[in-house]
Amino acid sequence: METKPPIPRAVLVGIQLPEVDDVAHAASLEELGRLVKTLGYEVVGSVSQRRDGTGAGALLGSGKLAELAALTGGSGTITSMASAPKAKARARFEGAGAEAAAPAAPEPGEGPRPDFVIVDHELSPSQIRNLERATGAEVLDRTGVIVEIFHRHANTREAKLQVEMARLKYVAPRLRESSGGGGRQQGPGAGESHLDLDRRKIRDRLAELKDQLEAVQRDSDHRRSARRDQLRVALVGYTNAGKSSLMRALTGSQVLVEDKLFATLDTTVRILQPETRPRVLVSDTVGFIKQLPHDLVASFRSTLTEALEASLLLYVVDASDPTWEAQLKVSQDVLREIGADAVPSRLVLNKMDRLDEAARDALRERFPDAIQLSAHRPGDVSDLRDTIVGFFEAAMVEDTLSLPYSKQGLIGEIYDSARVLSEDYDEHGRVLRVRGLPGAIARLRRGLEG
Ligand SMILES: Nc1nc2c(ncn2[C@@H]2O[C@H](COP(=O)(O)OP(=O)(O)OP(=O)(O)O)[C@@H](O)[C@H]2O)c(=O)[nH]1
Ligand SMILES: [Mg+2]
């Protein structure tokens, strides 16, 4: 008996559109390769072709299709009846009704041939079908890969619910009959084909998920509103830029840092260290990626709200990546859509330790306002902390609050949201000289008067 490879093997496929240059095309395929590795597959090759569009029935021209099929062991033609499409994709999604299934165990491949063809573009269900017919392999597109990674990495209840919704919405139009012909079935649901039944189940499940999600979101909105008017800075940016590394260094927390795409899927909030008065809260957020599937943007909701409510956004980029400017644009575009471009921001050029002096100078010339640093250098991190503190210091104002004897219970809140410069007493109660953000002071004043 032949020993079978334990890790699924994948071939990448990319179309280079006329407006995409060679560097961007190579970077996109490279990024797809990293996404695929994050899924636990081995990339064994890639096929790419220059074309005017991605709309062709089998995506590739017939020559390229034959080249791809030679790698995967398929017939190379769409009309062939050879090797019916595998129902693996469908099977993988069948557990979707349950809470995040464990990562699928790698399925053994058939000999050394790749089991997967992974395409760097969003495909229509019929393109997927055609490619599967021609290659005999299972076909996933970029969206499918990202949805699957999100599914595996989601940790909190909110993220899990959101990702399950995105996954069902992705899979519903791609469902097909499991048993070739697609006839009507007897028994429960008689009169409905399997396909109709599956689709109806998905609709019901989506409605259920929507309700649950709304309940969870009411909770987290509540928690967030309790943090309003606090000093908040959010780390935002492309996946793998180093946001979590900076978060760790700035707050001394143990958030996950990994050389993986989408290591972080949940927003975490920690206190800037050494602690200031009032405290500064730092949020680490999920990374962005190009061609983010539309339904998944919803699962960024908590991250996006975090960004929208911060007083300062730090756009973190991996300056050692030749495509960092395009990556920055992706993050800015998503945040602009929700109006977060109104939040004051700074550009943070991370991973400077990977660049030589000349490259650093060139960047300084072009982006004089950007903060250059390495998350791995403690001195750089401490400078960044000072910059953050300085930003809030400049935004703060001084004011006087009178705390009547009947409201002494509010003293803790005052100390939490402002810096108390001095405390005096008069016949009504305490008189505090405070320094804080205008919004926070206004809120305290309302509490004292109400
Ligand atoms: N050389 C170098 N590597 C860094 C630096 N900052 C982060 N890294 C590495 O970059 C990789 C990604 O870092 P993370 O902090 O997980 O990145 P992230 O932005 O949180 O990524 P996602 O959570 O996937 O969005 C890890 O392997 C880090 O060790 C840096 O300043 N220099
Ligand atoms: Mg992270």
TrEMBL record:
Keyword Metal-binding assigned: yes
Ranges of biased composition (kind: Gly residues): 179-190
Subcellular location: Cytoplasm
Source superkingdom: Bacteria
Pfam families: GTP-bdg_M, GTP-bdg_N, MMR_HSR1
HAMAP family for this protein: GTPase_HflX (MF_00900)
Protein name according to UniProt: GTPase HflX
Organism annotation: Roseomonas haemaphysalidis
Higher taxonomy: Bacteria, Pseudomonadati, Pseudomonadota, Alphaproteobacteria, Acetobacterales
